[in-house]
Amino acid sequence: MISDSALIASPGYYTNNLGSNIVTTGGGATANVGDASGRNDDGFMALSLPFSVDFFGNNYNSLFINNNGNVSFGAGISEWNPTGPTGASQPVISPYFGDVDTTNAASGVVYWQTSTPNQLVVTWDQVGYYDSHADLLNSFQLVLRSSDYAIPLGEGAIGFFFGTMGWEVTDTSTVSAVGFGDGAGNGEVLQSSLQPGLNNILQNHHIWFDANLAPVSDVSETPLPGALPLFATGLGALGLLGWRRKRKAAALAT
To answer: Model-level pTM?
Structure first.
């Protein structure tokens, strides 16, 4: 179980470089397969990666970007009503598994880019929900990195980033889920997955995971190495300065 407290407040996406919209290669009955606009419902796109990803002990060089808020390995996922990411029949990474529907012209679509070596970014940008609603929109992003990526301090191998998260309830479902599954019933999910109000908890937050799918701590709240000794040294110096001033004042008084 991933604690909700691991979420870190932040203003939105990791990057505003969204790249190209997905063009679905398969999916449900209303997937609009092959539509160049990227608008669809329950569709997915197969993507060959320019790097490999290790996930639950398996190595992958391709995946499927699923319209319904996740990516999967081995096969695309058209399911829209999550039983949690562990309920998927394929290995899955779910920033926000919900019934996304981008067929309304007022909805945004799903984008992907691999502009940075050894990194994939998938963005569900201002997307609507089933059945073709766009009065409320969700914006969230997945960052996925290979083991060859030089990860900066405070970041991780996988990142989920959330902007405005306006919807959770759709015409077919009432809950959403965040987390990981191996396709065989094992995985990790965010504490409030499948609970009312998950979208509100996620809004304007992010979370990084290391290669073992453990949350990465917020470095802004962690003293840098050596910071405490330096702080103590500073206090000592201030104390010494005060002692010298008192001594000088006493000498002048005499």
So the answer is: 0.87
- The residue assigned the tokens 């094992």 is 186
Domain that holds residue 242: 223-254
**How many Cβ atoms from other residues are within 10 Å of residue 231's Cβ?**
11
3-state secondary structure of 37: coil
Across the range 122-147, mean pLDDT stands at 98
C-alpha dihedral sign at 148, 58, 207, 103: positive
Q: Are residues 160 and 130 part of one domain?
A: yes
Range 10-42 burial, b when 16+ CB lie within 10 A, else e: eebbbbeebeebbbbbbbbebbbeebeebbbbb
| Beta strands across the sheet bearing 119-129 | 8-9, 205-209, 158-165, 133-145, 119-129, 110-113, 20-21
- Do residues 133 and 231 share a domain? no
